[in-house]
Specification:
Bound molecules: 1-O-pyrophosphono-5-O-phosphono-alpha-D-ribofuranose
Helix content: 10-25%
Largest sheet: 6 strands, mixed
Distance between the termini: 24 Å
Number of domains: 1
Order of helices and strands: EHEHEEEHEEEEH
Shape: globular
CATH architecture: 3-Layer(aba) Sandwich
Number of strands: 9
Strand order of the largest sheet: 4-3-2-5-6-7
Strand content: 25-35%
C-alpha cells in the first residue's frame, strides 16, 4: 500500500541509496578540505535539516553546527526573490570557515543574499554545499562549491524539500504530480 504522500509522487528522481552513497563521498571530500580547520556547518532552514544531519555525520571533522532560517518562496512554487531572515544565527562567525548547507540551489537568490550577509558578519571563508543543483533556473551568479546531484527543472520534494510545508519527510527526492500543485 502506498502512503498518502507516495500517492502524490509522480516519480523518484534520486533514491535513498543514491543519496546515501553521494553524501558519503561529499563528507569524505569535506573532511579532506577542512581537516584541522574547525569549520562551522551552517544549515539554511528549513529545507536543509535532513541533509545537514546526514552530512555532518558523514564528515568526522572537528566542527560545530549552526542554523539560519530564511524564506523567499512564501508557499509559492517560484521564488519571490526577496529573502527574509526568519531566525538569525546565534553566534559570532568572525574568522570562521563556513560550510553553508542547502537542500537546493535554484534561482540563487537565497545564497546570493546569504553569502553577502555572512561576509558582512566577518566569515573567513564560505563554502557552499548543496544536495541539489538546478542550474537551469539560476538568476543570480552563484555556483555551489559542491553539489550532490544536478536536477532538471521539475518540482522536487522530499529529503527536506517541501511543497506548502509538506513532503519534507519523504525519504527520497521525488517529483510531485502536477495536479497536486495546481489544485
Ligand atoms: C528553498 C531552499 C533554498 C531556496 C533555494 O527555501 O531550501 O533555501 O529555496 O531557492 P533559490 O536558489 O531560488 O533562492 P524556501 O524559501 O522554500 O524555504 P524552506 O527552506 O523553509 O523550504
Amino acid at each position: 500500500m502506498k502512503s498518502e504522500m507516495e500517492i502524490d509522487i509522480l516519480k523518484i528522481l534520486v533514491t535513498e541509496e543514491q543519496i546515501k552513497a553521494r553524501i558519503a563521498e561529499m563528507g569524505e571530500e569535506l573532511y579532506q578540505r577542512f581537516e584541522g580547520k574547525n569549520p562551522l556547518f551552517l544549515g539554511v532552514l528549513k529545507g536543509s535539516f535532513v541533509f545537514m544531519s546526514d552530512l555532518v555525520r558523514a564528515c568526522q571533522v572537528k566542527s560545530d553546527v549552526e542554523f539560519i532560517a530564511v524564506s523567499s518562496y512564501e508557499n509559492a512554487t517560484a521564488s519571490s526573490g526577496r529573502v527574509k531572515i526568519v531566525h538569525d544565527i546565534q553566534q559570532d562567525i568572525t574568522g570562521r570557515n563556513l560550510i553553508v548547507v542547502e537542500d537546493i540551489l535554484d534561482s540563487g537568490s537565497t545564497l546570493a543574499f546569504l553569502s553577502e550577509y555572512f561576509k558582512t558578519r566577518g566569515a573567513a571563508s564560505i563554502t557552499i554545499v548543496t544536495l541539489l543543483d538546478k542550474p537551469s533556473r539560476r538568476i543570480k551568479a552563484i555556483t555551489a562549491d559542491m553539489a550532490g546531484f544536478v536536477v532538471p527543472d521539475e518540482f522536487v520534494v522530499g529529503y527536506g524539500l517541501d511543497y506548502c510545508q509538506q513532503y519534507r519527510n519523504v525519504p527520497y527526492i521525488g517529483v510531485l504530480k502536477p495536479e497536486v500543485y495546481s489544485r
